[in-house]
Design goal:
Number of strands: 12
Strand content: 15-25%
Number of helices: 12
Radius of gyration: 22 Å
Shape: globular
């Protein structure tokens, strides 16, 4: 398998990106293509086996307007890498660069799966019972009910094929558990998702997400990103304050030694470096968005995630399920027909 890497994207590029990619080539048995400034990359990578370099003269920074950057910087490491993926010169693409530009590039260059209206970022959030995939984590600020329904389908397919969840529980992020909660689009999404042949567990409040009440959490990108950043911020705040408490005096320092293993495991569970990146669901190819502050371990795990995404055939699964689901109107009609059949069957109508 060949993984194309945007070596210049992210806060710690190219050093940490290259180091993580080299380790992935060594440990995961993948071929890595590093795209970026060949001089800078060679100083770090040398002549490492399993790693090749493709030169790109430009870099898309995190502050640039996504669509304009994708169209103007055609020789950037991100655009060059996405074009290689689209041309079949690799099996997956990984970048820690500008999120908006990556979403725009995946849409314009790699293209969307037939029937998919918009691609979505799907970060993995650790929970009490394992993890939950959040769809959307920030790609689409405004979402219609139809889009949210598609996010449910794509998240369900990814959870099944890549996260190995046999029957994913799908929830809809809302400000209450009642079906009548939320705005017009969210209420519409509730009805549309309910009509799908999924294990829909209804509306989920933000406070319950980390309890592991669902495996797929559907949200518009604005709400989803706020949830994601709130969890990250709370985890960092808790970690910082816990350290201050445990280092207060000799007695607390002794307690810290006794608790060291448990605290370390908890930190590891909520450390983004351990969880790879966020897949861009709905694109025709395997595209992974690594965390912008990725160090070598985080980027290694992002490549590991890309490998599993590709080998599990998740793109094909999403394509199949999107085609099978059809439009929300079609789903609603099917739901009415199925319910009518059930009623007639219970009444003993021979025509059913």
């Amino acid at each position: 398998m060949k993984v194309i890497v945007d070596a210049m994207g992210g806060d710690n590029a190219p050093e940490e990106i290259v180091k993580g990619s080299i380790e992935a080539a060594r440990s995961l048995g993948v071929e890595v293509v590093l795209v970026g400034d060949v001089t800078r990359i060679k100083k770090i990578a040398g002549n490492q086996s399993g790693v090749t370099i493709v030169h790109a003269s430009e870099v898309i920074s995190g502050e640039e307007e996504p669509m304009r950057a994708i169209r103007a910087k055609t020789d950037s490491s991100m655009v060059r890498g996405l074009k290689m993926l689209s041309a079949g010169e690799g099996d997956a693409f990984v970048s820690a660069g500008n999120s908006g530009a990556l979403v725009a590039g995946a849409t314009l260059i790699v293209r969307r799966i037939s029937g998919v209206r918009r691609v979505a970022l799907a970060p993995i959030i650790p929970t009490e019972t394992g993890s939950v995939i959040l769809v959307d984590g920030g790609a689409n600020v405004d979402c219609s009910a139809e889009l949210l329904q598609q996010f449910a389908v794509m998240g369900n397919a990814y959870a099944k094929t890549v996260l190995d969840v046999e029957a994913p529980r799908v929830g809809l992020l809302n400000n209450g558990t009642e079906a009548s909660k939320g705005g017009e689009e969210v209420q519409g999404a509730y009805k549309f998702i309910h009509a799908l042949p999924l294990d829909f567990v209804g509306n989920i409040e933000a406070r319950d997400v980390l309890d592991g009440v669902c495996d797929v959490l559907v949200a518009d990108g604005f709400t989803g990103n706020i949830l994601l950043k709130s969890i990250e911020g709370t985890a960092m705040y808790f970690s910082k304050n816990l350290k201050a408490v445990l280092m207060k005096n000799l007695a607390t320092k002794i307690s810290a030694l006794l608790l060291k293993g448990g605290i370390g495991n908890m930190r590891k569970k909520f450390d983004y470096n351990e969880h790879g990146g966020a897949p861009v669901l709905g694109a025709k190819g395997v595209v992974i968005k690594a965390h912008g502050s990725s160090k070598s371990l985080a980027f290694y795990n992002a490549i590991r995630q890309a490998k599993k995404f590709y080998e599990a055939g998740a793109v094909g699964s999403i394509e199949e399920l999107i085609a099978r689901a059809g439009s929300p109107k079609t789903q609603a009609i099917r739901s009415v027909i199925d319910k009518a059949k059930t009623v007639l069957h219970r009444q003993g109508n021979p025509k059913t």
